[in-house]
Write the structure tokens for this entry.
Amino acid sequence: MNEFDYIEKFFRPLTNQYANNLKNDAAVFKQKNSLDLIISTDTLAEGIHFFGNEDPKDIAKKSLRVNLSDMAAMGAKPVFYNLSLSIPKEQANTFIPKFVKGLEEDQGIFDLSLIGGDLTSSLKYINITITIFGETVSNKSLPRDRSKIGDHLYVSGILGLSKIGLDNFNSDSKDFLVAKNKYLFPQPRIKLGMALVNVANSMIDVSDGLVQDATHLAKNSNLSIELNLCKIPTPKINILDQKTILKSALYGGDDYELLFSCNPSHKHLIEKISLDLNIRLTKVGVFKKYKEEFLKFKNNSSKPKNSYLHF
Amino acid sequence: MNEFDYIEKFFRPLTNQYANNLKNDAAVFKQKNSLDLIISTDTLAEGIHFFGNEDPKDIAKKSLRVNLSDMAAMGAKPVFYNLSLSIPKEQANTFIPKFVKGLEEDQGIFDLSLIGGDLTSSLKYINITITIFGETVSNKSLPRDRSKIGDHLYVSGILGLSKIGLDNFNSDSKDFLVAKNKYLFPQPRIKLGMALVNVANSMIDVSDGLVQDATHLAKNSNLSIELNLCKIPTPKINILDQKTILKSALYGGDDYELLFSCNPSHKHLIEKISLDLNIRLTKVGVFKKYKEEFLKFKNNSSKPKNSYLHF
């Protein structure tokens, strides 16, 4: 099979009307005055974002979900995506069918379709780039830079699980099953993101660790966050000590929970959203006037460290 | 420097208002009822699409231009793009500043800006994915599948130069200077593409060789193309025989000329566009009813072969 056969057989069935059966040089999207188009890109590189020996179906799901999480962080409803896959020649015929199966399953779960992309060979490693598109009512997407002094900082779900899953990926202990599952299959908080439009002031998804992403939120509004370490929602894993777990929550990546600021007056509304969606929402900090640091720990003199950096 | 520093220092100056200074999880684009958004993606993988030892500035330009050529093929005006760059850690600090310089120069030439993307490390090779966005008046983009029986097939410029440039990239002969330049710096035919809206029936850019791309055009309209080999516009290169040159024109890739079908009645209009834009437009074939083959050579019994295939 050559690339045109792969596209025809495997990728074309994943498309919607904008793709015109992948027959053109580009997709054609009809614009609508009342909506904003929200556009984001995330790449997964073999050996950096995934091992390479995972089931291709799982790699596909992770690729889509990290992108979906960016839509959640904007409060947007995801509608379609664009995929570029670079893969060594000799892997194509085993990888692509399984990879496409993963895309297909997640398209069903998250109600979205493929509109185009590129399929090329690569010398040695797999590289997957997805550009995802979502929509919001005009001017209603949630930015990172509109937090105000006195805002409360909330986070969804629990933090650190994914890093624990990654660190113990080859362990046979049942204690790590949930963590490994979270590492493999992030749960983009799309419904929550959409529910927080008109409620949150700023929002980001926690992909690089709580400390790093909270620092982004603070920095972008030129404020300081006081983070309450006693309140961080962490998992209970019997064979790990609390210090390891908290470290994973603060500096581990890949949680894909939502971190957002909102006016304290929205307390009851937040509780209602949490109940309606059955998602834990925890107040973990407060926004203060910027003074020397973007992030400090409440009643704790230790200094925040760096999370994973690519360079 | 970490990835946030690179983004802040090098990529942020390339952005427009939709990017909001790259401070959000996504770009926010205001939709307009009267326009279609045209979306396309092309990836360049090290060792496949480029050697790796070229000037990073040239790699940047090629990455943008192959994408711009897709906009040209749709008759669209390019407006912004999204970039994902995966690069080995140890190359980042030498590669990125030069790469960005190339983007900056071409942004000026082609009047477009960056709206977002991703910057990650990779284990060994560079991978560049650009998603480009253009606009046309609603329903006016040019597809690949609306050719009609009797349509004439035209191609812009001359064909084969880029392949000759690639094949002789390490030659010192001055005879290959123009060819090498064409290989490094494709000239996306944007103005031509826009001028052909309402004139051409179908259009494609010649990125995989004339034979392969003409076959796409024929196949997508379920017609057959009779290609006149005597009419193919080829370069004059003294130290190469005519057979080698014609082979490069038919099967070599990376020409990024436009190949389009139009009603024979538009002959004079085509001549006028050619004069106005100072771009050679040559009639190279005719569309006929499909019978056994999508592409055949006029008065020549030899069979078309395959161009480069990734898999």
Notes: DSSP finds nine helices and eleven strands in chain A. Residues 56-74 of chain A form the longest helix (19 residues). The mean pLDDT of chain A is 95. The domain at 3-137 of chain A is CATH 3.30.1330.10 (60s Ribosomal Protein L30; Chain: A;).
